Each structure stands twice: as C-alpha cells, then as structure tokens.
C-alpha cells in the first residue's frame, strides 16, 4: 500500500520558520513529481510548490516565492518544504502528494496524498 506521511507542522510566530517533511513508501519515489498543497478552513486546496523527479526543476506559487524552498532526497524517499518568513495567511493544513512527471501544481493529476500536517501562524 502506498503511504504518504507529512510531519513537521506546528505553531509558529509570524516571521518564523518551519520545515515540513514528507516520507513516501510503497512507490518508486523518483518516478514521481512531488508537490506541496495547502488548505485553510473554508478555502479550496491550493498548490504551493512542486519539484520534478530528481529535483532539477521547481515551481512556487506567487504567494510563497522567495520564502519557501522545496527539495527532495530520493535516497530517503523524502520531500521537504522549508518555510521562512511565515505569515498568518500561510496557516493551513499542508499536504504532500505524488503525481506524474510534469504535473506540477495541477492538483487533479496527483495520485497519492498524505493526511496533512497542520501549520498555525500567530501574529
């Protein structure tokens, strides 16, 4: 069974930093584009960042450019999201997902999703 598990969420002050991790099992990790998505209460899920199979290409939503960094360690089947200069509007449940190469932030193309990790940002 494919398992995708996020960790690293928590409560931080505005301006602070947090690093999220996502570990996947039951799939060939480097066959997949990986993405981070987030969903705040009452809002639709939105794409945050994506990374290509071996990490050569990355993409960020405008709202997080310059503040967030996505990376992956294929040897560890792990995806990361370093979040700096956090803002209250970044508060959301953050989800990790695996999808086909080239999917990037096309949410509907992602096949495997984690359960999410909560990020809370206080002002």
Walk me through the structure.
By secondary structure, the protein is mainly β. It has strands spanning 3-7, 10-13, 18-25, 33-39, 46-51, 58-60, 68-73, 78-83, 92-99, 112-113, 117-122. Strands 2, 4, 5, 6, 9, 10 and 11 form a 7-stranded mixed beta sheet that branches. Strands 1-3-8-7 form a 4-stranded antiparallel beta sheet, with no helix packed on it.
Approximate helicity band: under 10%
Tell me about the largest β-sheet: 7 strands, mixed
Report the order of strands and helices: EEEEEEEEEEE
Secondary-structure content class: mainly beta
pLDDT < 50 stretches: none
Radius of gyration: 13 Å
Mean pLDDT, all residues: 96
Number of helices: 0
CA-CA gap between termini: 40 Å
Strand % is over 45%
Strand segment tally: 11
Specify the overall morphology: globular
Structural descriptors:
123 residues, mainly beta, globular
Give a short synopsis of this structure.
The protein is mostly beta strands and 123 residues long. 0% of the residues lie in helices and 50% in strands. It has strands at 3-7, 10-13, 18-25, 33-39, 46-51, 58-60, 68-73, 78-83, 92-99, 112-113, 117-122.
Write the layout of secondary structure elements.
Layout: E1 3-7, E2 10-13, E3 18-25, E4 33-39, E5 46-51, E6 58-60, E7 68-73, E8 78-83, E9 92-99, E10 112-113, E11 117-122
Parallel strand pairs: 2-11
Antiparallel strand pairs: 1-3, 3-8, 4-5, 4-9, 5-6, 7-8, 9-10, 9-11
């Amino acid at each position: 069974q494919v398992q995708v598990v996020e960790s690293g969420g928590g409560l931080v002050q505005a301006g602070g930093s947090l690093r999220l991790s996502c570990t996947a099992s039951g799939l060939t990790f480097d066959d997949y584009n990986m993405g981070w998505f987030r969903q705040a209460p009452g809002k639709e899920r939105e794409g945050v960042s994506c990374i290509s199979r071996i990490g050569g290409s990355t993409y960020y939503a405008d709202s997080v450019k310059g503040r967030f960094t996505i990376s992956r360690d294929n040897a560890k089947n792990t995806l990361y999201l370093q979040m700096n200069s956090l803002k209250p509007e970044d508060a959301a449940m953050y989800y990790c997902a695996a999808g086909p190469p080239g999917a990037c932030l096309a949410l509907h193309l992602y096949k495997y999703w984690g359960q999410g990790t909560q990020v809370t940002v206080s002002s």
